[in-house]
Specification:
Elements (H helix, E strand, L loop, with lengths): L1 H28 L38 E2 L11 E3 L5 E9 L2 E8 L5 E5 L5 E3 L8 E6 L5 E7 L6 E12 L5 E11 L6 E4 L6 E7 L2 E8 L2 E8 L4 E7 L2 E6 L6 E8 L5 E9 L2 E4 L5 E8 L2 E8 L4 E4 L9 E3 L5 E7 L9 H4 L7 E7 L5 E5 L10 E6 L5 E6 L4 E6 L1
Antiparallel strand pairs: 1-6, 2-29, 3-4, 4-5, 5-6, 7-8, 8-9, 9-10, 11-12, 12-13, 13-14, 15-16, 16-17, 17-18, 19-20, 20-21, 21-22, 23-24, 24-25, 25-26, 27-28, 28-29
Length: 411
């Protein structure tokens, strides 16, 4: 019994000592929320122990602190080939402001606009206007106007919103960081849409049971410029007065490629009868890079409109993976390294096939090609699409189709 009594006394003493220590440190933390001397507070051990501000993905309207992501805590000079957006995006534009190259892009989940200097890592959110689940964004080249497209909850109605970035000021002398996106709606269920980079004119296609009609809207005032019994084609501005009409490419259907004059409605055929035809023209509408289906694959050629001559290129890719230089006879393309046999371009459009691309430069006059980068050498797999150039043509901007993230390449 004496032994048991001694053990109980010892336990009681130990408990009193433990309680005293806990009370002493608890008093130090009460009132001023000061941590322990080694920098660890009790709250650090429990998820409910922190009462400070919790960061959110979407600051409330009027918040003057931009949401910024960067490599580490400090923006640094990027590698020659680097990931620009940390999340999936739906469309981007590179532009020059105060002599510095920038890129702006639209977050796919929220429709928020982000901006990044092409000379530094990291992106800053510059708008707080939310448009959920934007699957496509098309920009004017000044980075101030865009069209955002999304499906409504019924998964059948396509909405197209014209947005203009405008500054919001808290006073006459102070301007807050976020910009408002002033919006207006275009007609529902536009099948194809293109923004002319310089003027911001919008060409779009609407269809009904009898065919399709092409409209051109300047300052949201639409004018019908063309009507056809054919309704399955894609639009793309070639220059200020010319719109390209490309029948939707398929490996089982001969394709057509036309030029449509936006001012007169005159239509001229450029290419026809090629299965799986996809094409892009240079700004002077003198040359066309096009791809067509072959037996289990595809090939790429250059077409000279003046002479009517077509010549195969040494690289093989889809025209959707290319962009023309606006200044020289150069084309930049994502080129699949080892494409598997399939029905192209259908399998790629529908996501049944994903490519591992290298980025090439092609001179359409001399025929020479130059490998710019193989992303796999830096541990990245890229299926390139939506390529574009900055105005000085020092950078290629592209989307990785595998995850919709934006990448930059210093040429």
């Amino acid at each position: 019994m004496k032994t048991i009594f001694k053990i109980l006394i010892i336990l009681i003493v130990l408990c009193l000592i433990a309680f005293g220590v806990f009370w002493f440190f608890g008093q130090r933390g009460a009132g001023d929320e000061s941590p322990f001397s080694d920098g660890v507070s009790i709250g650090d051990f429990f998820p409910f122990g922190t009462t400070g501000n919790t960061p959110t993905d979407n600051p409330p309207p009027g918040d003057t602190t931009p949401n910024t992501t960067s490599t580490g805590n400090v923006a640094t000079q990027p590698a020659r080939f680097w990931q620009i957006s940390s999340e999936p995006q739906s469309g981007a534009i590179a532009f020059i402001a105060t002599g510095t190259p920038y890129v702006r892009y639209t977050d796919k989940a929220t429709g928020n606009v982000f901006e990044s200097k092409l000379t530094l890592t990291g992106s800053t959110r510059i708008s707080n206007t939310t448009v959920p689940k934007v699957y496509e964004s098309l920009w004017q080249n000044n980075g101030k106007m865009l069209v955002m497209r999304y499906l409504t909850s019924d998964r059948e109605t396509i909405k197209s919103i014209v947005g203009t970035l405008t500054k919001m000021a808290t006073s006459s002398s102070e301007e807050i960081a976020f910009q408002e996106v002033k919006t207006s709606f275009l007609p529902d269920n536009i099948q194809s849409l293109s923004v002319e980079p310089t003027t911001g004119a919008i060409a779009y296609l609407v269809t009904n049971d009898t065919g399709g009609r092409v409209f051109v809207a300047t300052a949201q005032t639409p004018k019908q410029v063309y009507e056809s019994a054919v309704k399955d084609f894609n639009l793309g501005w070639v220059n200020k007065t010319t719109i390209a009409l490309n029948s939707k490419p398929s490996s089982v259907t001969p394709g057509q490629f036309y030029f449509l004059k936006s001012d007169t409605g005159a239509l001229s055929r450029v290419l026809s009868g090629l299965t799986g035809l996809s094409a892009i023209a240079n700004a002077s509408s003198s040359q066309v890079i096009y791809s067509e289906s072959t037996n289990g694959g595809f090939q790429t050629s250059m077409f000279d409109i003046k002479t009517g001559a077509a010549s195969p290129l040494t690289i093989k890719t889809l025209a959707d993976k290319c962009v023309w230089s606006a200044k020289r006879s150069l084309v930049y393309c994502g080129v699949p390294k080892s494409p598997s046999s399939g029905r192209y371009p259908d399998d790629w459009y529908q996501g049944r096939v994903s490519f591992d691309d290298a980025i090439w430069q092609i001179d359409t006059v001399s025929g020479t090609t130059k490998l710019l980068i193989d992303p796999e050498t830096v541990g990245v797999s890229i299926d390139a699409t939506n390529l574009s150039l900055d105005p000085n043509e020092q950078y290629v901007i592209l989307t990785n189709k595998k995850d919709s993230r934006l990448w930059g390449l210093k040429i």
